[in-house]
Amino acid sequence: MNHIRLASPTLRFPRVPLDRFVLPTVGVEYLPIPENADLRGFLDVLHARESRREFVRAPEDRDVSDLLWHAFKTKQRRRNDDGYRWEHRPAPSAGGLHPISVLVMNRPPQRDAVFLYDPIAHALGRIEPVNRDVVLSFFSAVNSVLPVGEAAIVWFVADFRLTLSKYENGESLVWRDAGALGATVELVAEALELSSCAIGITGEPFVAQITGNVPMLEGVGGCLIGKRPIARESLPPISASRTSARRQSRGPVQTGDRRLR
């Protein structure tokens, strides 16, 4: 088998600071700020998390908003002395650069529309124009891995140019950013009691075509998000329930009484 060995990253000297490429969008849909609901404890979420491949229906708009807020929302930002823009988000990123943008697709009623998440305004903008045939080809590629159905598609698009402008051999940093982002999404989905499953393809060449074939802007994976099936409460076997009830009706067994009851 082939193995691509990525070189170890180092800071680039000299370097020219760049900003993340921002895709042009049409319109803006401001999303509601999540309510201060009592979410599950972190360790409970951590140990309960698993890939959930059943999506009984599409996530509600509130579900999508909550997921985007908790997994991707920018908390702080500033311009550093070296000229680069630093941001703090829930998932870590090399140098605080956060080169990955988030696309949301398969949202009713415009299932072939492509939306870009704005992590500062907590809003969605529609990418236009897009080739609908390319979008459907992308859906087909995702569907070949896991049936999409009504699940929302959340996909990552990395601006390799940004990270490589600061780090020599920075490709592995972008992929590690994508992995950290994927893990964060999975944990947030579990906390929100949504089904989520990572998809093991990059989305290329379709994502590059959807985003306008911008140099070094590439898909780096994503996931499906949807409503999970309602878990049935596990009940004790009928025989065990009857035995327990019978014992309770007869009172406690006296010490030394070895008769079967």
Summarize the structure.
30% of the residues lie in helices and 22% in strands.
From the coordinates shown, what is the CATH architecture? 3-Layer(aba) Sandwich
Q: What structural class is derived from the secondary structure elements?
A: alpha+beta
CATH superfamily: NADH Oxidase
User: What does the largest sheet look like?
Assistant: 7 strands, antiparallel
Structure keywords:
NADH Oxidase, 261 residues, two-stranded antiparallel ribbon, 22% strand, globular, 30% helix, 7 helices
Question: Could you explain the architecture of this structure?
Answer:
With 261 residues, the protein is an alpha+beta fold. The protein has a single domain (10-250), classed as NADH Oxidase, CATH 3.40.109. The protein has helices spanning 42-48, 61-72, 132-143, 160-166, 171-191, 206-210, 238-250, and strands at residues 10-11, 26-30, 76-79, 85-88, 100-105, 114-118, 123-126, 152-159, 167-168, 194-199, 217-227. Strands 2-7-6-5-8-11-10 form a seven-stranded antiparallel β-sheet. A two-stranded antiparallel ribbon has the order 1-9. Strands 3-4 form a two-stranded antiparallel sheet. Strand 3 (76-79) and strand 4 form a beta hairpin. Helix 1 crosses helix 5 (171-191) and helix 2 (61-72) crosses helix 5 (171-191). The chain is globular, with a radius of gyration of 24 Å. The model is unreliable at 238-261 (pLDDT under 50).
